[in-house]
Design a protein that fits this description.
The chain is built from 30 helices and 45 strands. By secondary structure, it is α+β, with helices and mostly antiparallel strands. The longest helix has 33 residues, at 370-402.
């Protein structure tokens, strides 16, 4: 390959004369110049001289490098082939078809370089993106020419359009250096309005305002060439994309070469001189190490500005390179997509290059000041960017503190006029920013608080942060409580106003008041709770001591109120409770303090003027409570038990008075309720006795002092033994025999009833099983009494199952006796437990039948198997016609329901005969047999069997 170039028109003739003998028929000639006529003449002359050469000519307002007025490059290829193709202007309207045409006519498998020249600047990038890369060595260089430029080919002048030239050959080698030299400078601007390749607004202002402010009018006058030297940069997918500024429109919008989108951020950029120098040096170093037979150097208008002196020194170092100008240079190869470049230096070689083509090294030093200026611009830009980032962070922090703060935030000047308010201020207080800015802040404070708020304002201006509570009326008139903080605003060491921050504590204050209320008052009745009432009691007792007056303490316990909750629910129960409280309040004396301890228990404190006033007030309460209550169209009857203790007679401190009143109310409840009991010393003795008996009973279980007696239940007609009823007894070593009605209630109170009940079940079942085996009567049954507390325990059914399993007694031989009271207590649980026992096969006997007022109503719902007629109806059976009628009705009813009847407490032969006449099934009592010990029963049963 032979290569010649020159940079002035007068050198061209000398080139021909000096190298006439060595110039072979050239295959490629490229010419560039300012004057279209001169270029046209040279092209025509060259075509006559070498008619088979591929000639390309460019003429127009192009910046010529190195001070030359023309550039000519001539290449004679030895083994490579060239293809050239004229591209008509109309073909550029179809980039896909044009790319297909070039690929078919000019690109081959061994193409090393494809050059595309066109004045269609906007279409050229799209065309290059569509052109294929045929191998890893191939590079494509596109040169966009300015409007008004002219292209020439071997066939003559082209009116617009373009030319494509390809260099192909297996021996052809090329190397392309195409650096991206633009570096961002200054701040980033947001594109707030755009269309396709046009930017209308930056930061909501006309884009032209930014061009004029930052780049100046001279830049705007030199467009579009200056738009390549100082283009916009936008970051996309982690890399900078160059957007040359093409034109400025009259509406203030800016046309760019490249698509833009709203929200993108763009920055101005400039050609970084040090990068230009080092990129050119890299190209020179490569050419020095691997000498080229020919070098094309295509450069953009970006190098025609302040870097021109530096670029001219680079041109002088590349002696045998042909430099061709363009508005933009676009490069594409196998490794990178289409990109803009400040220049593209392409070296070509077919064989080992000769030494004469070596470049003169090193590159001359850059012009003075250029590198320093570039360094200054780069460093200043980075500093400005860091400063801007810090400023943005500060602004964002301030915005977060001010704009997004849920507290109200405002600022005032030195005279208290509002200078800013945050959105929370507007939302919470209801004022619009426009109507309150620059008005006096005191206008929005209640008149009663103006002097206090003014005092805090001036203290803050003196440099002291102020914190205080302040009520602020909203625009609608609602008063809100705020915790305010006033902070002085200091600028350049001078106080210019204050910041106010207000935290709305209205709900917090309400919550604190509610918590305080709940801590001392009952929410259902609004009465003082135990804590508050105890404080009142302590204070009233101190007052009574000082004035030597008497006072009464009463504990009020509603009788069987739990039944109300169980039948109608707790919500209705609370409503009924509130009605009762209102009734009690109506009869209270002046100065009385009523409180609620818990549940259905209340406490009352009132001063006494007369000795009998305490009893009268308490009886009035009992009468009021006993009046019928209506809820949900149903009538309820409730009674109250009241225990009284008088200060100072029954105690001189609150603890003694409450303890004694509690003893009195317990005595009232034991007496059946619906009554008043005044504390007396005997109650204390009884309480001590019960405490002692509780200890004795616990030891009785441990020492096996409890034992069982058995009373036969016989057939009234045949006198055959049907079953035995197990009766518990307690023989204390010093107290002797203790009656069941004394220790069973005590066992229920202490919870010992469950342990005792399990022992009774197991012992009774074991004993009857022994009698069955002894007599051969496997139908002999056992009746076991079950207390209400025991029956309601969640493990009761399991206790029954365990007793039957351990003794191997048939469930049908076990009958559990329950009183009507225990059955009707917690009726839903009772029915569920009795249903489980029925499925198990265990019999249920209603004990003391007829003693309760609701027996007949509930009997059909209870899965009972036996009725035990209460002894009270048996006592006068033979002498009292009414009792006889009642017993007859019970027996008839039982027979109608399929239930057997057992008469209890049969004491005389006459009673037994009458029961036989009334068709009663079974009986038990002393006339038949008294309760016996287990060993005595054995002989009795054996005797009856015989």
């Amino acid at each position: 390959m032979r290569w010649f170039c020159c940079r002035r028109a007068e050198e061209l003739d000398r080139l021909f004369s000096e190298h006439r003998s060595s110039l072979d028929e050239p295959q490629f000639i490229q010419i560039a110049g300012h004057d279209a006529g001169e270029v046209d003449k040279i092209v025509a002359d060259l075509v006559r001289r070498w008619p088979r050469a591929h000639v390309i000519g460019m003429a127009g307002p192009l910046p010529m490098a190195g001070g030359g007025n023309i550039t000519v490059g001539i290449a004679s290829m030895m083994s490579s082939t060239l293809s050239s193709l004229a591209l008509p202007a109309e073909e550029f309207d179809r980039p896909d078809g044009l790319a297909e045409l070039i690929a078919g006519e000019a690109i081959h498998r061994d193409t090393a370089l494809l050059l595309v020249f066109s004045d269609r600047r906007f279409v050229l990038p799209s065309l290059l993106r569509r052109l294929p890369i045929s191998n890893e060595r191939m590079a494509i260089i596109g040169c966009a020419l300015p409007e008004g430029s002219v292209l020439f080919s071997s066939d003559g002048r082209l009116e617009r359009g373009g030319i494509a030239v390809s260099f192909s050959g297996t021996a052809l080698r090329g190397h392309c250096v195409a650096p991206f030299l633009w570096e961002p400078v200054g701040l980033a601007f947001s594109i707030t309005k755009s269309r396709d390749q046009q930017i209308d607004e930056l930061n909501e202002q006309k884009a032209s305002l930014y061009l004029e402010r930052y780049l100046g009018k001279e830049f705007m006058d030199r467009l579009p060439l200056s738009g390549v030297e100082f283009p916009f940069l936008v970051e996309r997918n982690g890399r900078d994309v160059c957007l040359p500024i093409v034109a400025l429109h009259s509406d203030g919008s800016v046309a760019v070469r490249g698509h833009v989108h709203n929200g993108e951020k763009v920055r101005f950029s400039y050609v970084h001189a040090p990068s230009l120098y080092w990129s050119a040096r890299d190209a020179a170093m490569h050419a020095a190490k691997q000498p080229a037979e020919g070098m094309f150097f295509y450069y953009s208008a970006a190098l025609s500005g302040y870097t021109r002196p530096l670029f001219d020194s680079v041109v002088s170092a590349f002696g045998q390179a042909a430099f061709f100008p363009a508005v933009e240079v676009l490069v594409k190869d196998a490794h990178t997509a289409m990109r803009p470049a400040a220049f593209a230096a392409v070296s070509l070689t077919e064989t080992a290059a000769s030494a004469e083509n070596r470049l003169s090294l090193p590159l001359p030093a850059p012009p003075e000041g250029i590198m320093t200026l570039a360094q200054l611009m780069s460093t200043s830009s980075r500093d400005m960017e860091r400063l801007h980032v810090r400023l943005q962070m500060s602004e964002q922090r301030y915005k977060s503190l001010f704009e997004h703060n849920t507290d109200i935030v405002y600022s005032t000047d030195l005279h208290g006029r509002l200078t800013s308010v945050n959105p929370a201020f507007e939302q919470v207080l209801g004022y619009k920013k426009e109507e309150i800015l620059y008005t006096n802040s005191l206008k929005y404070i209640h008149p009663n608080d103006v002097s206090r708020a003014t005092r805090y304002f001036y203290r803050a201006l003196r440099g002291n942060v102020q914190t205080y509570h302040l009520e602020l009326p909203t625009k609608s008139g609602e008063r809100l409580l705020f915790q305010m903080k006033n902070i002085p605003i200091i600028v350049d060491g001078k106080k210019v106003g204050i910041y106010g921050i207000g935290h709305n504590i209205t709900e917090q204050k309400k919550a604190e008041e509610k918590i305080a209320y709940l801590a001392y008052y009952d929410p259902d009745t609004n009465l003082p709770n135990r804590t508050k009432w105890m404080e009142l009691l302590s204070g009233q007792l101190e007052k009574a001591k000082r004035k030597r007056r008497k006072a009464a303490v009463a504990l009020i316990d509603l009788d069987r109120f739990k039944w109300i909750n169980d039948s109608v629910g707790h919500y209705a129960g609370d409503d009924i409770l509130r009605q009762l409280v209102e009734r009690i309040r109506r009869v209270l004396p002046v100065g009385a303090e009523l409180g609620r301890f818990h549940g259905d228990k209340f406490c009352l404190l009132f001063p006494l003027k007369a000795e009998d006033e305490a009893a009268e007030t308490s009886l009035s309460i009992v009468r009021e409570v006993a009046k019928p209550l209506v809820y949900g169209e149903k009538e309820f009857f409730i009674t109250a038990s009241i225990g009284l203790a008088v200060f100072p007679d029954d105690g001189e401190d609150e603890h003694a008075l409450l303890r004694h009143a509690d003893m009195a109310v317990n005595m009232a409840k034991k007496g059946g309720g619906n009554r008043v009991e005044r504390y007396c010393a005997q109650m204390n003795e009884e309480a001590m006795h019960r405490m002692e008996m509780g200890g004795h009973l616990r030891r009785a279980i441990e020492e096996n002092e409890l034992f069982l007696c058995y009373q036969p239940i016989v057939d009234v007609h045949t006198r055959a033994v049907k079953a035995m009823e197990a009766l518990i007894r307690w023989r204390h070593p010093t107290l002797g025999l203790v009656r069941p009605d004394e220790f069973i209630p005590l066992a229920e109170e202490t919870g010992l009833i469950h342990e005792i009940g399990r022992w009774v079940l197991k012992t009774a079942c074991k004993q009857v099983k022994r009698w069955q085996e002894m007599t051969g009567n496997d139908q002999l049954a056992i009746f076991v009494n079950v207390s209400a507390v025991q029956f309601q325990h969640e493990r009761f059914v399991d206790d029954v199952k365990q007793a039957l399993r351990q003794t191997r007694l048939s469930p049908s031989c076990l009958h559990l006796e329950l009183t009507e009271h225990s059955m009707l207590r917690h009726l839903s649980n009772t029915l569920r437990t009795m249903d489980e026992l029925r499925k198990l096969g265990v019999g249920i006997a209603v004990d003391d039948f007829g003693s309760g007022y609701s027996s007949f109503h509930y009997l059909k719902r209870l899965p009972a198997t036996i009725l035990k007629i209460d002894r009270a109806f048996i006592e006068q059976l033979h002498a009292n016609a009414s009792d006889e009628a009642i017993v007859r009705a019970m027996i008839t009813m039982g027979r109608g329901l399929g239930l057997e009847t057992i008469a209890e407490g049969v004491e005389t032969p006459e009673q037994l005969d009458r029961l036989r006449d009334l068709q009663c099934t079974y009986a038990q009592g002393y006339v038949i047999c008294p309760p016996l010990l287990a060993e005595e029963v054995t002989s009795y049963v054996t005797e009856k069997q015989t």
